[in-house]
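Input chain follows. Return structure tokens only.
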Amino acid sequence: MPWVYDTVPQYRLARETVELFLREKFGAHEFKIEASVAAIDRRLLAHIYQRYVDEWRFLIPNALTEDEKFELLDRR
């Protein structure tokens, strides 16, 4: 199965926290994690207060579920 890109808001979320979370979910891989700017998914607006935000973009084995994204955001 090919790897996919996924994103979460960068607001108050350190790159190291994202990397640790991904390692816990998918094992010890070298994840491509980069910062970018994009429109945010409206379902995640409860966690942030702006429509366009910096986000972390990462290449992973499969996309995170909405619950996994909220779990990661709760680590801020």
